[in-house]
Amino acid sequence: MLKEFYKEAEDKMTKVVEATKHEFATVRTGRATATILDHVRVDYYNSQLPINQLATISVPEPRMLLISPWDKSAIEAICKAIIKSDLGLMPNTDGHVIRISIPALTEERRKELDKVIKKKAEEGRIAIRNIRHKINDLIKEKEKSKEISEDESKHAHTEVQKITDEFIKKIDHALINKEKEILEG
Q1: N or C: fewer beta carbons within 10 Å in the chain?
Q2: What is the mean pLDDT of residues 151-156?
Q3: CA atoms within 13 A on the CB side of 8
Q4: Beta carbons of 1 and 147 less than 8 angstroms apart
Q5: How does DSSP classify residue 55?
């Protein structure tokens, strides 16, 4: 019975770590990656669509994104959406493809981005601790209803804490890697 709780905690915490890593991937560093456009939505025939549903995004050079829309009439809408985003990118088009040159980051911008990713990491840690709290409440309920003993409950709480610590370390490790990427950029 307790193994189900551990499995549930691990499954939910894994999703939090993956979501946090995805959030990190959307933060622009000095290098070009298609994931930095994941949150940009394009107004396309009265629908808000992500760019990757309207075009192919490639990285031909370390500081260049190339967007090839399947429908050439979407080029203007894609450019507008990129300009309106908070990414600070300027798209250029020749009528067939959109090129985005990724500028090198200034020291000030690197520090701002560092704060952003630290905030995202803390949000991930909080989500993991909330999962721990919910699982511990379930364990307490089982103890109160005499389905498990006090000793089993204490052991389960210790086990859940170990799982929590493991997943917080994963977020911390991802944060360290992203900080290196931003600060070295």
Answers
A1: N
A2: 93
A3: 14
A4: yes
A5: E
Q: Which residue has the higher pLDDT, 172 or 29?
A: 172
Burial classification of residue 162, based on how many CB atoms lie within 10 Å of its CB (0-12 exposed, 13-18 middle, 19 or more buried): exposed
Per-residue pLDDT reduced to its tens digit, 56-72: 999 898 889 999 999 99
Q: What is the pTM of this model?
A: 0.70
How many angstroms separate the CA atoms of 109 and 96, rounded?
A: 32
Residue 61: partners with Cβ closer than 8 Å, 6 or more residues away = 32
User: Are 160 and 132 a contacting pair, CB within 8 Å?
Assistant: yes
Q: Which residues contact 39 (CB under 8 A, 6 or more apart)?
A: 26, 85
CA gap 171, 181 in Å, rounded: 15
- Which amino acid is residue 109, in one-letter code? R
Q: Is 9 exposed, middle or buried (0-12, 13-18, 19+ CB in 10 A)?
A: buried
CA 44 to each of CA 47, 72, 113, 157: distance values in angstroms, whole numbers, following the listed order: 5, 12, 30, 50
Cβ–Cβ < 8 Å for 97, 66: yes
Residue 31 banded pLDDT, cuts 50, 70, 90: confident
